[in-house]
Amino acid sequence: MDKNNALRAGALAAGTTLMMLLMSSPALALTRDDGDDPGPGLSVIQTLGLYVFLPLVLFVVIAGLVMALDKSRAKKDTTSSNIDVKPGAGAKA
What we know:
Elements: H1 2-23, H2 44-68
């Protein structure tokens, strides 16, 4: 019985996907909508700057601000920084 349910679910998913692909074909993009007024296109440099370099610069600026304003390094670690280890101390089993 589980095999039939899996087959039915697969057929439903495949049919839905096929209908979505057929309904959203690129041929529908050829006709203009009312009020459609596209502007001038972007050059390659403008596209790379807008979608590649600008996000990278924003990431670096945000990461730099987080690192610069991080207060956790200012706190002393009281559990390990105050332990003195004597050199040459051996432990006997």
